[in-house]
């Protein structure tokens, strides 16, 4: 099983730390392994600033405020569009506000890598159909999966992938 992760830095305010792109790729891969997703897949991850994520949040969720991450799944009930050239399943798009990620990392007193890893894993689970807003039980299931994936990668609250 292979996952192609296309990463774009669509903001100019903050220089992305070395190793962040590799971390994002490893998080995407780890979610698919954990979920026994055994088909080739593609996902797009974009880093944006707060102005852009606010615009997207307003446009797609009718919420006029910045947020940390948005997920745009291309599949429903396990059925995905297919890249005709590669045969890979198109899982969708992840959009992360690097500004909000930095703010939240400081607020939670953990490294930026932990925050970006968490946001990537969280969003990947959304692309696979998980939704923490449907019920408290689903929220708990999703949280347990997030922590399990991050722990497997060594991205704990005390460590970061890049320092391990």
**End-to-end Cα distance:** 25 Å
Beta-strand percentage range: 15-25%
**What is the helical fraction, as a range of percent?**
40-55%
Poorly predicted runs of 5 or more residues: 159-164
Overall pLDDT level: 92
Mind summarizing the main beta sheet? 5 strands, mixed
The string of secondary-structure elements, in order, is EHEHEEEHHH
Helices and strands: which structural class?
alpha/beta
User: How many individual helices?
Assistant: 5
Can you walk through the features of this model?
- This protein has 164 residues and is of the alpha/beta class.
- 44% of the residues lie in helices and 19% in strands.
- The protein contains 5 helices and 5 strands.
- Strands 1, 2, 3, 4 and 5 form a 5-stranded mixed beta sheet that branches.
- Helix 4 crosses helix 5.
- It is globular.
- The two termini are 25 Å apart.
- The model is unreliable at 159-164 (pLDDT under 50).
């Amino acid at each position: 099983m292979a996952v192609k992760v296309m990463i774009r830095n669509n903001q100019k305010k903050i220089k992305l730390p070395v190793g962040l792109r590799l971390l994002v790729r490893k998080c995407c891969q780890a979610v698919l392994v954990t979920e026994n997703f055994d088909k080739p897949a593609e996902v797009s991850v974009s880093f944006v600033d707060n102005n852009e994520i606010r615009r997207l949040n307003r446009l797609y969720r009718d919420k006029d405020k910045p947020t940390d991450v948005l997920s745009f799944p291309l599949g429903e009930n396990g059925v995905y569009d297919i890249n005709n050239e590669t045969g890979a399943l198109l899982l969708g798009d992840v959009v992360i506000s690097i500004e909000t990620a930095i703010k939240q990392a400081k607020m939670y007193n953990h490294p930026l890598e932990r925050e970006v890893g968490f946001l990537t894993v969280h969003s990947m689970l959304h692309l696979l159909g998980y939704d923490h807003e449907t019920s408290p039980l689903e929220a708990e299931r999703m949280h347990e999966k997030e922590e399990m994936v991050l722990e497997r990668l060594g991205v704990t609250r005390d460590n970061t992938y890049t320092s391990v």
